[in-house]
Specification:
The structure holds two protein chains of two kinds.
Chain A: H1 2-16, H2 19-43, H3 47-79, H4 82-87, H5 93-127, H6 133-158, H7 161-185, H8 191-203, H9 224-251
Helix pairs in contact in A: 1-5, 2-3, 2-5, 3-5, 3-6, 3-7, 5-6, 5-9, 6-7, 6-9, 7-8
Chain B: E1 2-15, E2 20-33, E3 37-41, H1 48-55, E4 63-68, E5 71-72, E6 82-85, H2 97-107, H3 112-125, H4 141-152, E7 159-163, H5 171-186, E8 190-195, H6 198-204, E9 207-212, E10 215-221, H7 222-226, E11 232-238, H8 242-245, E12 255-257, E13 260-265, H9 268-280, E14 284-291, H10 295-308
Parallel strand pairs in B: 3-8, 3-9, 6-7, 7-8
Antiparallel strand pairs in B: 1-2, 1-4, 4-5, 9-10, 11-13, 11-14, 12-13
Helix pairs in contact in B: 2-3
The chains are: A mainly alpha, B alpha/beta.
The complex binds adenosine-5'-diphosphate (ADP) and magnesium ion.
Chain lengths: 255, 309
Amino acid sequence: MRRVLAIALMTFTEAVRDRVLYTILVFALAMIGSSAVLVTISVGGEGRIVKDLGLACITLFGLFIAVFIGIRLVSREIERRTVLLLLSRPVGCGAFLVGKFIGLALTLLVNVGAMALGLVLLARMLEGEWTPPLLLAGGFAFLELTILTAFSILFATFSTPTLSTVFTLLVFVIGRLSRDLVAFASQFDSLSLHVTASAIYYTLPNLSRFTLGSLGAGGPLPSEATLLLTAAYGLGYLTAVLALATAIFQRRDFQ
Amino acid sequence: MDAIRCQGVCKDYRVGFWRRRVRILHDLELTVRAGETFGYLGPNGAGKTTTIKILLGLLHPTAGCAWLCGRDASRPEARAAAGYLPETPTFYDYLTGEEFLAFMARLAGLARSVAREQIPALLDRVGLSGAGSRQLRKYSKGMLQRIGMAQALLGNPALVILDEPMSGLDPIGRKEIRDIMVSLRKEGRTVFFSSHIIPDVEMLCDRVGILLGGRLARVGRLDELLGTEIDSVEVTLAGLPPEAAATDGALAPPLVQGDRVQLRLRAEAEVDALLRRTLAAGGRILSVVPHRRTLEEIFLAEVAERGRR
Ligand SMILES: Nc1ncnc2c1ncn2[C@@H]1O[C@H](COP(=O)(O)OP(=O)(O)O)[C@@H](O)[C@H]1O
Ligand SMILES: [Mg+2]
């Protein structure tokens, strides 16, 4: 466990010292801020649009962090052969990948946290009241992003950085749409279409679960049970992806 | 207990578009005893790095088995007693030397207090005591090799595996690495290192293994491989017509340079005769140098024999 934490901390340090991170973060905050200004000018300070837009921004920029920094830090380790040093110590492949994952998740947590807090402050300025559910929504956005991080680690264990990026973005898009995909397929009576849609639905994560509905519009929060179930689903999924990544990594030769 | 044991280790790679199988290591049988310094010698591409990576569980052998200190090399625990310096090591650019060593110490499972004691001592040992707080991207090639050496020695491992530890270093750097290896031997640690530079191996090793084309061509103590008897004698004469110098005992045609003649003779009896003739003909004797077989000659002979087959 000490070894896992050591790797996690190292990954976090590396991510924090990486200039790409700040570029993404500054860009994200600028986006959220300018969208607020634009919305204020055009619709006269509609807080809910800012909130929905802000949450979308958080997911989008979190996605950039999960994909670009996640894949960068894992595949660079393999390409530059620093992984040889780590694995030449009594460190298992699982410990290595879980350490990487925790380090990246920590990076995400700090960034998503910063963006979510910024959003809460912004909403307070526009609407004059605090909206704690925004933080909950930020939390679920974070969970969704960690699943994507696990996928980016999974892909980085066996393919090139570019392909891994493409794959992870695909998982995001399909994962967001998979429920709609099934609904769409059910309108036709082609068996193969049904089977394909369900196969995708059940193997790739159903990411639309993690967007807490029309939060910005002041809609009701999902029930506690639903929230817990969603969280459990996310954690279970994450674990499965990391286990698969470990199994692949263990069979791999390190050149 | 043996520090390293390989039994029937083979490694295949798949190459090219058709993923054709190519065997890189053939049935490797190798034993390195605890406490010895073993030089793993072979030309570039012989399979030295491949062997070392199999020993550390970084590559999976196609067939056969390897053990480190009696433990199956494919298991992470086997590496607990080993330190490893990779060939042309690269590190984390944004960590400082000290941070990097602290990180590696945690991976090695060292307690924080032990690490705090060892890191400055190791930096000093590899001659980097002033550079510990600098980021690794500002290190020169020689400094990187040394910090790599320092991390390999963290936790005082009983077995140190070094892949080409002296390649790419200037003569001073090489001497420093060599000194460290000598001191490791004195401390009773097992050192396994690969090299294609013969004098390094000759100076340091108890035993050597010569790897050619993925096959272990020779293994043995250096004195066994080299022998102690004189193999040939090189005689340099001057002021003598080359015809007078001609002798049946010459191993090669005489080298003539100005009025100097250089000959290589097989046995001492012929040397005596030649010297007597030279003096009688009014020539001068410039030098008489006895030659033992060197590792280089054995190595080149093995390579040549491989080529002929
Ligand atoms: N991934 C690989 N695919 C195919 N061949 C490889 C691969 N890695 C190494 N080789 C080949 O294996 C041989 C041995 O390589 P290596 O162990 O690095 O040699 P050495 O360290 O003795 O110079 C070389 O001929 C090299 O071309
Ligand atoms: Mg090599």
